[in-house]
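Researcher: Before we compare anything, I want clean individual predictions. No alignment, no superposition, just each chain on its own. First chain goes here; please echo the sequence and then give the structure tokens.
Model: Echoing the first chain and its structure:
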Amino acid sequence: MSLTIKNVVFVAGLGCIGLDTSKELLKRNLKNLVILDRIDNPDAIAELKAINPKVTVTFFPYDVTAPLAETAKLLKCIFSQFKTVDILINGAGILDDHQIERTIAVNYTGLVNTTTAILDFWDKRKCGPGGIICNIGSVTGFNAIYQVPVYSGSKAAVVNFTSSLAKLAPITGVTAYTVNPGITKTTLVQKFNSWLEVEPKVAEKLLEHPTQTTQQCAKNFVKAIELNKNGALWKLDLGTLEP
């Protein structure tokens, strides 16, 4: 699938993997890249705008833990401004098993709410045009890091939710797939807490394994979007892309 003149909404498009993926997307001559993120970063937005002046980059503040009604209100504003959205990327995530409720809220509930809200505009049963959802999971979604069962469980939920969305595509007209990064050098994995302190040095031990850079991950991330395979569970690990 060509991404030329597509409108893409990217939740957490300024994060570690998110920012490098946004940069890769801009090389594809989108029409609009709409970034939703919790923290405004004018320097990052300016950097993105400079990459490809042909693409309009727009920022909206958004916390994925907001209630569904607030998310729906924001999406109504976005659809009013841009008329159409072709792809939604759900990329928000945290890794801290001390924050149980927030981990589930950010990694799973927020993703479900954003998806639910956009279905109101896309669902073909409501005469919508359909759309494409790309959810960022993790290899922990099917190969848990047992020291962080809350995080791993939230990512397993993302994988299963997305697989269900893909099977519902004949009903809704909305296709879906997950991209699941392996260990990537981000601030997320520099230091994090294990569940009930079962492993005090889990971050250090995790980084003893081979890793990939955010740039490597981003390149394969965009390749997965271009392949646009409904129901796919892509693994993005060590600079490779594979089912």
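Researcher: Okay. Second chain, same rules.
Model: Second chain and its structure:
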Amino acid sequence: MGQGEAASPPPAEEKAVGEEEDDFGYRLFPDRNKKPQSFLVRSLFTFHNRCQVMLRMTLETNPYAQLLLEAMKQSGCTVFNDRHFSCENCDGCVGGGFDSATSQIVLCQNNIRQQSHMNRVVTHELIHAFDHCRAHVDWFKNVKHLACSEIRAANLSGDCTLMNEIARFKFGLKRHHQTCVRDRAIRSILAVRKVSRETAEKAVDEVFDACFNDLEPFGRIPHSKTDAKRAYRDFQNRDRYNANL
């Protein structure tokens, strides 16, 4: 499992004898191991209703999410609302995560309270899902693979926009966007992996340039919803051009 806006760890797997136990972040998502509640119980749960309504709004109106959904469909990984998204209770302050075992995005219904937050979480986790679709990502054993996807998610999801950073009281630094992406990628790895900060920083630094400059499927860093709309339009036009070749 993975941390909300800033993480996307993989699912648990059996450990070899003597290997250090690692839950791959599942401790943050306790509902993953519970029997699903009935539709009636879930429909009466305010958090769940609110989560579903906000998710629907994101998928129908947010250009970041719309571009990613179309890109995944083009890559043969069509996303279905009722199959690939799950509103659940989570521990801590995480907003969501990507479960590669089920190809499912978990949305933390008890922590996501605003539509703007839902937009960022869905976009962040869809980037992980897109990476999972297009590449052979070793979420379990290769921390560099995880670091790369975390860098891309922080870079392209809007996590590090100027307004979000001002809200965190972080602004005015040279190369601030790159600094924000690096810091959030490291934080995400530490949230879902039992590794030292030194290990997380080393993994991020070793792949940073290549992964920061991998802008697929946006083709640009979308610093705002306007940028995302332009990227979505360019993506659609690119597909139309390729179809006419």
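Researcher: What stands out in the second chain?
Model: The longest helix spans residues 115-134. Additionally, The first strand starts at residue 85 and ends at 88.
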